[in-house]
Design goal:
The structure holds two protein chains of two kinds. Chain A is built from six helices and no strands. By secondary structure, chain A is mainly α. Chain A has a single domain (about 5-210), classed as Methane Monooxygenase Hydroxylase, Chain G, domain 1. Chain A is elongated, with a radius of gyration of 19 Å. The N and C termini of chain A lie far apart (about 45 Å). Chain B is an alpha/beta fold. Chain B has a six-stranded mixed β-sheet, with helices on both faces. In chain B, strands 2-1-4-5 form a four-stranded antiparallel β-sheet. In chain B, helix 4 packs across helix 5 (about 135-145) and helix 4 (about 120-130) packs parallel to helix 7. In chain B, helix 8 (about 195-210) links the parallel strand 7 (about 185-190) and strand 8 (about 215-220). Chain B is globular. Chains A and B meet through helix 3 of A and helix 9 of B.
């Protein structure tokens, strides 16, 4: 195998690990939301404990990307590939932390709280998970039309978030003794909204990879 | 024809914002029946560093040597098209080649000092140009060696043979020798390919300093070097100029797919 072939294999391997981290992050969020609805504090604890593995994967991606930059001194698209590997893995790691935060809220709410989880939280999570799937596909095929679609989906998440927050604010007035619990639910919605923002960052990175220009999907 | 008068005249009339040291139009070049350059059109900016990259045999050194007509040392060379040096056609039969080469100096791949003292290496050109006074020569030698960032290393051994210097020092000596005839342009043909990384860095730093006062055109196989030292980069392939852009653009987001393929190591 030539040195250059080896480099392209290494880039392919890096891409594979990033996709793996994206799948792990998606799973963490999906399970965290399920645990929130099911008041499953054991599952929530499991998600928190598992996060260290995702952190390690992000570090591994960083190390591999830095090593390839140092050894291969890449230019143009090859260089952009490595730069976005660093940025996307950092977004994914942060997204996994939001899943952990939701799990922590589940633990704080406990097994016996009387509140129903707002149905729109699940809807937000569903859209966010669809966004991850789309981002994975856009990353895989370097498809900027898919990357642009992420912005529209993020708007949907933002609207749901505003309406949840409005409703919860009203509930604190009618149900002041439950304020601690309502706050945890509102945090959950907030974590999902932030989670989705990071997916749009991934879309921007794919845009940068393909076009060599920066593009603000949150505008 | 006195080139310096022409240049003075040209500088007075040219708009300040866009200054080109060379304007190359429709340049073709053949070695016998083999065409080496095809329709090159390129304006080389003044007081900047222009890098020329491309795979072996793409015509980049040929192009460089055409700029001071050194390429004509190969007897079978034929050219068509035009190269203007600050407005003057360099192929004009009235123009002396020696005069052109006084204005357009050259540094080669392998350091090639004369088997003389360090002092005499630098004084050689000025002496040919009729400068005889020791005081004047002393001044030129010091100024040139300082300009090439080697004065401090050699000032106490100017009478020693230049062959006693390291490769990196010899190359900077050759640059100093080039500066001694006060050129406007310095052509560099892979000036660091025979040097170790530290000497390479010194030459690169020197190139950065020299562009204040000179226009530099550098052929290099080292793309990182082109990216580090140049303002504009030209990519040659099979005798054609594929792309000529700002270095920042060419190495981050080139326009032509062939440039992208070359700089990312997909061929060449």
């Amino acid at each position: 195998m030539t040195v250059r072939e080896q480099f392209h294999n290494d880039l392919g391997e890096l891409k594979r690990i990033i996709q793996e981290l994206a799948e792990d992050t998606k799973k963490a969020l999906s399970e965290a939301v399920e645990a929130l609805y099911n008041k499953d504090v054991d599952k929530a604890q499991e998600i928190i404990d598992n996060d260290v593995k995702l952190d390690r994967k992000e570090l591994n991606i960083n190390e591999q990307a830095i090593l390839l930059i140092a050894k291969q001194q890449p230019f143009a698209k090859d260089l952009r590939r490595l730069i976005i590997a660093l940025k996307i893995s950092s977004d994914l790691e942060r997204m996994a932390d939001y899943a952990v935060n939701i799990a922590k809220s589940t633990i704080r709410l406990g097994k016996d709280h009387p509140l129903d989880v707002h149905p729109k939280i699940r809807k937000m999570a569903d859209v966010a998970l669809d966004m991850v799937n789309l981002a994975i596909k856009a990353f895989e095929h370097e498809d900027i039309s898919l990357a642009k679609k992420l912005a529209e989906m993020d708007d949907e998440v933002d609207h749901m978030y505003s309406s949840i927050i409005r409703e919860m604010l009203e509930e604190t007035a009618t149900n002041p003794q439950m304020i601690q619990h309502i706050m945890q639910m509102a945090f959950g919605a907030r974590y999902l909204e932030r989670f989705a923002d990071h997916i749009t960052n991934i879309g921007e990175n794919i845009f940068y990879l393909v076009k060599g220009e920066t593009y603000d999907l949150n505008e | 024809m006195d080139l310096s008068q022409v240049i003075h005249h040209e500088n007075k009339n040219k708009p300040k914002e866009e200054k080109h040291v060379f304007e190359v139009s429709n340049l073709n070049l053949w070695y016998g029946d083999d065409q080496a350059l095809y329709d090159i059109n390129m304006n080389i900016p003044e007081n900047q560093v222009t890098a020329i990259i491309g795979p072996s045999g793409c015509g980049k050194s040929t192009f460089l040597k055409t700029l001071n007509r050194m390429v004509e040392m190969v007897p079978s060379v034929k050219t068509s098209g035009n190269i203007k040096y600050k407005g003057t056609n360099i192929f004009d039969p009235k123009l002396s080649v020696e005069d052109l080469r006084t204005h357009v100096g050259m540094v080669f791949q392998k350091p090639n000092p004369f088997p003389k003292s360090i002092y005499d290496n630098i004084a050689y050109g000025p002496r040919i140009h009729g400068i005889k006074k020791k005081r004047d020569l002393d001044e030129i030698v010091e100024k040139s060696l300082r300009g090439a960032a080697i004065w401090d290393e050699v000032k106490d051994r100017l009478d020693e043979n230049a062959y006693g210097l390291s490769g990196g020092q010899q190359q900077r000596l050759c640059i100093a020798r080039c500066l001694a005839i006060e050129p406007d342009v310095i052509l560099m043909d892979e000036p660091t390919s025979a040097l170790d990384p530290i000497s390479t860095l010194k030459v690169e730093e020197l190139v950065q300093e020299l562009k204040e006062n000179y226009s530099i055109i550098i052929v290099t196989h080292n793309m990182q070097q082109a990216a580090r030292v140049s303002d504009k980069t030209a990519f040659f392939l099979n005798g054609e100029l594929v792309e000529f852009s700002d270095t920042n653009v060419l190495f981050s987001n080139p326009e032509d797919q062939r440039t992208e393929d070359y700089i990312t190591g997909r061929f060449g």
